[in-house]
Amino acid sequence: MTEIKYITLEELIHVYEKTVDDSGGGFSGIRDKERLESILEFVQNDLYYPTFEDKLTFLVSRICTGHLFDDGNKRMSLTLGVYFLHKNGRFWAATTFMTHMASFIMHMAAGRIDEELLSRIIPFVINGKEFNEELQIDIAHAISVENGNN
Question: What is the Cα–Cα distance from 143 to 9, expressed in whole angstroms?
Answer without folding.
Answer: 33
